[in-house]
Amino acid sequence: METIxxxxxxxxxxxxxxxxxxxxxxxxxxxxxxxxxxxxxxxxPAAVYEAMLERLEDYELGQIVQERMAEKDNAVxxxxxxL
Length: 83
Hints:
Layout: E1 8-11, H1 12-17, H2 19-26, E2 31-35, E3 38-43, H3 46-70
C-alpha cells in the first residue's frame, strides 16, 4: 500500500460530485485523490500551487547563483566605461 501524503483524501467519485466542497473541507490542505484506495493525484488550491512554483523557481535561481559563484575565478573584469 502506498503512503498517502495528506490529512485529507477522497475518491475520484467524490471529486466528480463536488470538488469545491472537498477544497472547502480541507481548508487549504492537499487532498489525496484515490482510485481503488491508491493515491493517483493530489488536489491543492491554486494559491498553494502558485506558491510552490515560486519556491521552486527561487531554489533553481539559487542553484544558478551558486554555480556562477564557483566560476568567479574565471571572470574577466570589465570597466563599464569601456562598454
